[in-house]
Specification:
This protein is of the alpha+beta class. It is built from 15 helices and 11 strands. The radius of gyration is 32 Å and the shape is elongated.
């Protein structure tokens, strides 16, 4: 251990009387610890809620969607299916029919997006099967009746229940009725099931039917589709897979990831996380100002000691290092205490669920928490960097101490 380090440690843990400078130093350590712990805890909670939301989104929406650049028809979806299969991380690719329709029931009317899917499409969408709250997961109602599954908010708007009949009118039906000056005749379907995903847009604006029913509603041919939905073994690799697809597909197609399809929500989650980091980081910044104050007062208090050390041969660099080390040690102690406290809280919540939630009323039974190593490292570096910055001014001031003036007490 260097001489500068020994002196710095002695300044922090000296046996002198408990004075004002000691109080400020203690407050600085506690402030840095509190800020560090709060940042780790809050960001971990944000990560937990973000992962919960992403799981719901990726359990319902595709990981990647391919749509035509012009028009809304993919004439030969099998080509894209074969191409997607050449990339190892793809799990499956399915053609999909989707478009806006108008649903009517009694005097109620609502516009929503109707999805026409193949028999195997839902084999990898487990979240929807878990979300059926009324009726059953089925594309038929009874033996020969065409069925539809709709969201709970949409069912509420239409005033329907499982077994009720709704009429779907497509844009082409409306166009044909205007040309013939007649009332549009829609497709009548039975509500087979009602699902609730707890995602407002999905529950209000989404309905599912089997692909041949959708083809009848939209007057499409058997091999045609509006888009291709791809699901991956690991949805986190969607960006990598999408870039590979873009390089292989022609300009006739556009490739969107689940982040693109939910860009507003994803950006809001990222903004909230950054805003929380900035606001709570103020705690550390205030504590760092206390570090600066305590070091500056220590320089004043120890002016004669500094002069004596300089007189016996210490250089300005040596003096400067004493205060750089002292401030850094204060920051390190506070950061270490805060990191341990923050990790104890987060892992305690993960394993023991200290902050529980009524699972009968909500989709989770405790406040979700997820610790990310990158976040913890960033918080530690942020705290240590600010602590180091606070030492620069007092260290420079101490290194410029004039020996003669300091000994005379000027």
């Amino acid at each position: 251990m260097s001489a500068a380090s020994k002196i710095a440690i002695r300044y922090i843990f000296s046996k002198r009387s408990f004075n004002f400078i000691t109080v400020i130093t203690s407050i600085s350590i506690l402030g840095i610890a509190a800020g560090t712990a709060a940042l780790i805890a809050v960001l971990s909670i944000f990560n937990g809620f973000q992962e919960l939301t992403v799981r719901q989104i990726t359990g319902f929406d595709p990981h990647i969607r391919i749509v035509p650049t012009k028009g809304n028809i993919i004439s030969n979806p099998s080509e894209i299916t074969n191409l997607a299969g050449q990339i190892p991380i793809a799990h499956t690719a399915e053609p999909l029919i989707q478009s806006k329709v108008v649903a009517t029931h009694s005097s109620n009317m609502q516009v929503f997006t109707l999805y026409g899917i193949g028999e195997n499409y839902f084999s990898f969408i487990n979240e929807l099967k878990k979300s059926i709250i009324v009726g059953e997961f089925n594309f038929h109602y009874g033996e020969h009746r065409k069925g539809i599954m709709i969201g709970s908010a949409l069912a509420d708007r239409l005033g329907v229940f499982a077994g009720d009949v709704i009429e779907l009118v497509s844009p082409k039906m409306i166009e044909a009725s205007l040309q013939s000056y007649s009332y549009p005749k829609g497709e009548q379907l039975y509500v087979a099931g009602i699902f609730q995903t707890n995602i407002k847009d999905n529950d209000l604006t989404t309905g599912f039917v089997i692909s041949n029913t959708a083809q009848n509603v939209f007057s499409m041919q058997n091999e045609q589709a509006n888009c291709m939905d791809i699901r991956l073994e690991q949805f986190e690799k969607a960006d990598t897979y999408a870039s590979q697809l873009r390089s292989k597909l022609s300009k006739d197609y556009q490739v969107y990831t689940w982040k693109d399809l939910n860009s507003d929500l994803y950006q809001i989650m990222q903004f909230e996380k950054m805003a929380s980091f900035s606001i709570i980081g103020i705690i550390i910044i205030i504590a760092v100002f206390n570090v600066l104050s305590s070091l500056a007062m220590t320089v004043t208090e120890k002016k004669q000691d500094i002069a004596i050390i300089k007189a016996i041969g210490a250089t300005a660099k040596f003096i400067r290092n004493i205060y750089l080390i002292e401030g850094s040690l204060i920051g390190l102690i506070g950061t270490a205490i805060g990191t341990v406290a923050g990790l104890i809280f987060t892992f305690g919540q993960i394993h023991y669920k200290w902050f529980a939630i009524d699972g009968n009323r909500y989709i989770i039974d405790a406040v979700p928490v997820s610790v990310r190593t990158a976040d913890v490292v960033l918080i530690i570096l942020f705290s240590m960097f600010l602590s180091f910055l606070a030492t620069i001014y007092p260290a420079r001031k101490a290194s410029k101490t004039v020996v003669a003036e300091a000994i005379r007490g000027e």
